[in-house]
Amino acid sequence: MGVGVVASLAAPCAWAQQASAGSIYTCVDRQGRRLTADRPIAECLDREQRELGPTGTIRRQIGPSLTEQERAALEVKRRKEAEERARQQEERRRERVLTARYPDKAAHDVERAAAIQLLDDVTAIAEKRMAELQLQRKILDTEMEFYQKDPAKAPMALRRKIAENDEGMTEQRRFVGNQDLEKRRIHQRFDAELAQLRRLWAAQLTPAATASDPLPPAAAR
Question: In sequence order, what are the residues at sequence separation of 6 or more whose Cβ sits closer than 8 angstroms to the Cβ of residue 149?
Fold first, then answer.
């Protein structure tokens, strides 16, 4: 076995053996927290820490004991851990907001229905406009009957009204189609939300159910 391998295997052991009987180790970590322990502090491997005797006197100063590459790797690891903690905290916060907003399925159903009703109301207005355009088109078509043999002779004003009617109908149909798509998206969002809420509601009920479970016969005696 090479000298380098022996040294790498021995390093962790040497670090663990640095702890002396009755010693107190202290340091300030990267977040500015002062830490103390009865052995070298892992959070301060990348910085200096002090070994104190039982009376508080400084026995020696240790570290940093990491190479530049090791410190960089440790920093990446700590950053990822901090990001994961922040993500989990934000997720828990959102879950609390969600259950506060929807304490039960009835409350969730009410909001779903309100969102769908709003779309239905807007769609009804568009459909009413389409009915008006259809009625208008019938009148225009009746006028065009006079120019059936040669539509090019129809007055420019009449042809412009027909073109505007076609554009209006196309626009309203596109709008209604988009509302239908939005309605499906809303149902999908509420369905996904409801699945998450069922899990959260069940988790809220679990402690209460456990506490209300009757004691087994042996415990009851």
Answer: none
How many helices (H) and strands (E) would you count in the chain? 5, 4
One-letter amino acid of 188: Q
Among 57-71, 92-106, 205-219, top mean pLDDT goes to 92-106
Whether the predicted pLDDT of 101 surpasses 80: yes
- Cα(53)–Cα(27) distance, integer angstroms: 15
Enter the tokens of residue 68: 């530049």
Global pTM value? 0.57
Between 105-144 and 156-212, two packed helices, what is the crossing angle to 10 degrees?
A: 170
In 3D, which of 39, 9, 35 has the Cα closest to residue 21? Answer: 39
Phi, psi for residue 37 in degrees, rounded to 5: -160, 170
Sole residue written with tokens 């149909």: 173
